[in-house]
User: Fold this.
Amino acid sequence: MSVTPIFSDRVMARLDELGRISDVAEHLTRTTYTPAHKQANDLVGGWMREAGLRVHQDGIGNLIGRLPAVDNGAPWLMLGSHLDTVRNAGKYDGMLGVIAAIACVEEIRKQGLSLPFGIELVGFTNEEGTRFGTAMTGSRAIAGTFEPAMLAAKDRDGISYEQAMREFGLDPADIASCKWPADIAGRKLAAFMELHIEQGPVLEANNLALGVVTAISGARRYRVEFKGLAGHAGTVPMGSRRDALLAAAEAALYIERRCTGTPTLVGTVGQMEALPGAVNVIPGLARFSIDIRAGVDAVRDLAADDVLAEVQAIAKRRNVEATVTPLYNSAATPCDPRLMDAVEAAIKAQNVPGMHLPSGAGHDAMTIADLCPVGMIFMRCTRGISHNPLEAVLPQDVELATAALYHFITHFDPAALAA
Ligand code: HGY
Ligand code: MN
Ligand code: MN
Assistant:
């Protein structure tokens, strides 16, 4: 007998609706400080209000819904995930964690439950770093680790983070006000729990819907520019070229070699451009991104150091100039064992098996870990595909995942973490 779903119909319908809000018509790309960012905050803010949450947008553009406890001095549980996306994205990465948490609050109110803690439900902005390269600025503002240098980061059109904020109606001077406890002085944050798709193939390979996240890999990101000499494709002999694109190509292939063969170590060149970009001109300028991660920081750092050294060696060999700009650096983050136990119990309560697994993907939980213990629930995604419009989930998994989050919330005991 199939049990009537409590959550999944509404969660899936809302994810479909939210997935139609994009910076561009042809696919889902929702970056930061764009009209789509505002539209998404307005739409999700309305759903938060319907659930009985008090809603506001904070000083950096995060969307926040609050359900205070009856007791003003009670601790708070933070829930949520990010509302921004990569380019040509799927509609579940980040959004699932926000929409499912709203569905849980709706059910809590429907059941007339009053919890011994407040709920701070956050739709973080700029977790991906798609527009400016520098990532997780929304959660960093709440954690108090936003770095003013990030305001100078520029998008593809040369607009700075600061300028984009101001055009969005925000004042960088207000970023400091986002830092927990924000506008409720002295409140204590007991924990942060994030539901997220796995974005990998492990749960599906084990025929499981849900998983307990053990740790989140740390990442280092850079932007590299090689400056050679543009020249005529027909007249400059091969031996006397200063071809910036070939230097970048050599660096990319080195990154692949260096990051292959070490467990949890991965290296990616996601962006590359050759300028001036004419078919009959030797590229005088090449820009590309580097993203290096591992479950253990020392493994990642060793690889990153080797890659940066090779970038300089290639520049020397090819007589081009290398400029390396660090964009982002996050340490590997362990999930709190007590929250892992609570997630395990929440999965068990759904009468399904689960498993423990690390996250190769980064999440806002890494940043919020500077404030409080963090935990994550992983949900299977089809063929492990993510950062891709083919990202897909099963409604029955969404039901299980939201029910597990609901179980975690309604059984959460802040005192157990105070010990
Ligand atoms: O890049 C990541 O790991 C995440 O999707 N922001
Ligand atoms: Mn992502
Ligand atoms: Mn994500």
The pocket of manganese (II) ion (ligand 2) is lined by residues 86, 93, 128, 387 (CB under 6 Å). The domain at 8-217+332-418 is CATH 3.40.630.10 (Aminopeptidase).
